[in-house]
Amino acid sequence: MPPTSVSQKAQQGGVGGGGNAPEPQRRLQRSNAKVDRNQAQVGALMRTQAKRDLLSETKEERESWLQTKKDEVLTDLVDAATKELTDNLSAKMTKVVNAQKKQILESARVAVQQSIDASQHAGEKTDLKADTLVSESDAWDEAAGVATEEAGKQVKQHGAALKQAADPAFKVGVGVSLKTADRQKHLEKVASEAKKLIDTKAKEIETTLAVDVEKQTTKDRVVNAAKAKVSSSATTGVGDEIKARHDNNQTLESAVNAPVTKVAEEIRSETKTYLEHGLGAHGTGWFRSTQFKQFHAKMKEAARAKGHAMTDAAITEKRGSGGGAQGKKAEFEYQTAQAHILTHEAAKLELREIMTTFAGDLLTQTNAAVNVEKPLHDSGTAAAWAVLRNDPANKKNETAASKAATSAVKAAKPTVLKDFHDKAQELKNAYVKADIAADPNAQDAKNNDVISQKVDKGFDEREKDGEKFGKRMLRQAMEAPSAGKGLEMVGKLIDAATPQVGDETTLEVELKIPATHGAFCYFTVKGSAQRSAHMELGIEVGFGAGWETWGLSARGGFNVFLKAAAHDTVNAMQLIHYGAFRNLTHVSNSAANFWAGVTDAKKTASKHDDEIGKTEQAELWAAMTEERVFGKDKEAFVEVGGGI
């Protein structure tokens, strides 16, 4: 059992005894009461002293306490100010980056192209477009991120200044009562003051940054950083892309080759046609330019001069080898005149062939200067690869890639055609439309170049491949369609109807000979024929002329009776032709000349002084007929009756 305290014992004795306590006990009670009072006083004193110590802390003590709270207060305030500054500066730098977007992306394209060129397949036609790879990447998003990064770096440099700006707020002000101010309330006041100081400093910094961002050095730094970031992003994975593209090259070529070949041929064909028209290979028209008409006229003049010269050379050669001998002089002279008449038109047609060849030469030059296939091929493969790259092994993708390639090549055609056409036009105009403003003699010089290098040489070159031009004109001179040819056809009908001596026949034939511009001449042949030792013909020929429009004709004329005899039908019909001509000379020189097959005098020579008039042409023909028929058959005759 624990011992009993003194005060307990005193309390027990008092309880057990009665009456007043003895003196020792009273002294103990008084002593305990004193202890109790002392303890109460000490507690009260301690409580009073503690309150007095808090309310009377020194300024230094309060500031020391505030410093312990400084980081806690400033972190949020500085972060908020920093974010706002960064956002504002980032917006300004984004504008700087956007303003140089073209330059930045071009830098990325260059980097990508360098990556492509540096690949192990650089020597092959991978047809990968740097533009496509850059646009397919997230490169531009990277550029936007650079603006934020650069803004953050700039603002971060001012972080210490923002914190320092709040220092005055963490000092105990003169008006602060340390006896009545609660620490927490004081801290809230300090935080409010710190925010004001930080905001003020942030505005100063923002002004400084706004000025700095407009400096060229700052812009260059930001743009260069964007270039580096975008280029790095764009080139990521280029190597893998190139390898995959290379591995599927055969599939892509299969998809692209056919449409490229087709469109390339279309471009060249269309350009060839343009060049042919531009050089006059298909003639001219009222809608053509004055310069072109002058060029074309000079080319025709040169071609006809060359043609007539070659015809003259052939005539001279034939004359030297017996042409125009006794009994054939008139025939030869007529033939030479007809050869020159044919030369007039044939030279123009020859010129068209030469100009067609010239157009081909210019097309070859254009083709050497402008690559048609490459841009078409690049467009087609880029489109095909865009479809194929995600799943090359999928056969459906191969079909889709082919369709994409075809569409892309067709879409690229106008641009490629324009480039090709522009070059062809430039080459053609150098001859047809020289810059006479810069040099008044330029067009003449170019024309002379074409004449000497193309026209004259063209005639010479074409002779190597076949019958010489002049000889061809002489040969064709006696084959030209005319009234005489029509009568020869009638003669063949007569021969068919009267094959044996003693045979007789009657006939009625109508022939129409085209003239020009819808006009025509016609004649009807009615009569009988009897074959004996000579072929005797009694024929009524009806002559007329008129104009034909939309299948309708209006005509008028007259009839003449002719009787002729010669040793064969051909000569007899030639006499009919001759007799009709002589009859027509009394009616109309124009009709007689047409009957003789004459043409415009301008078509008989390249020079005016050498021209043969229509009447002279007709008489040459008549002289030839007289020589040909009467020279062979002294008993031949032709009689003319009727007429007007």
Architecture overview:
With 644 residues, the chain is an alpha+beta fold. It folds into 4 domains: 43 residues; 189 residues, no CATH class; 220 residues, no CATH class; 162 residues, no CATH class. Helix content is 68%, strand content 9%. A 5-stranded antiparallel beta sheet has the order 1-2-3-4-5. A hairpin with a 3-residue loop joins strand 2 and strand 3. Helix 11 runs antiparallel to helix 14 and helix 12 crosses helix 13. It is rod-shaped and about 210 Å long. It starts with 5 loop residues before the first helix and ends with a strand.
Topology (SSEs and partners):
Elements: H1 6-16, H2 23-55, H3 59-99, H4 101-117, H5 130-136, H6 139-156, H7 159-165, H8 183-213, H9 216-235, H10 238-247, H11 249-278, H12 290-320, H13 329-369, H14 373-388, H15 395-432, H16 442-464, H17 469-477, H18 483-497, E1 504-514, E2 519-531, E3 535-549, E4 552-566, H19 569-584, H20 589-596, H21 614-630, E5 637-642
Antiparallel strand pairs: 1-2, 2-3, 3-4, 4-5
